[in-house]
């Protein structure tokens, strides 16, 4: 028995397979829009790309954190501006009450308003929150420690 091989046909068949594989990879790159679709395309490039993606995600989160910090400060600033206005009004009332032209009834009414303003100051201090954290009651800077 004799087996004949057609070397030219086998070589052409191998080249056809290589070309089909290359065409398939090129179509995958074109359809995905990425130069690197798997580690076999460019292992070093993929490693660099993944590192950069991680850095980008970290920077995006840092930007969101900064925006949250700005929002927190703006919330506290609004409450402090309101507190300042109330303190100014209390000062005006104190100066007004010190005038000898006021009667005891007048001073009593002024004191009622001052008491209401003091209650409002307490409310602002206790109820100003950002993300369920009270901002102006003195607890913001405290750090809880866990002990074993």
Structural account:
- The chain is mostly helical and 148 residues long.
- It has a domain at 42-134: f41 fragment of flagellin, N-terminal domain.
- The protein is built from three helices and two strands; from the N terminus they run αααββ.
- The chain has helices at 7-32, 43-97, 104-127; strands at residues 129-130, 133-134.
- The protein has a two-stranded antiparallel ribbon with strand order 1-2.
- Helix 2 runs antiparallel to helix 3 (104-127).
- It starts with 6 loop residues before the first helix and ends in a 14-residue tail after the last strand.
- The model has no long low-confidence stretch (mean pLDDT 88).
Mean pLDDT over the full residue set: 88
CATH superfamily of the domain at 42-134: f41 fragment of flagellin, N-terminal domain
Got a strand count? 2
Class by SSE composition: mainly alpha
From the coordinates shown, what is the CATH architecture of the domain at 42-134? Up-down Bundle
Question: Helical proportion?
Answer: over 70%
In spatial order, strands of the major sheet run 1-2
Number of helical regions? 3
N-to-C span: 85 Å
Principal-axes geometry comes out as rod-shaped
Taking all Cα atoms into account, the compactness measure Rg is 37 Å
Determine the strand fraction and express it as a percent band: under 5%
Level-1 CATH class name of the domain at 42-134:
Mainly Alpha
For this structure, the CATH topology of the domain at 42-134 is f41 fragment of flagellin, N-terminal domain
Q: Biggest sheet, in brief?
A: 2 strands, antiparallel
List low-confidence stretches. Answer: none
Summarize the helix and strand pattern as letters: HHHEE
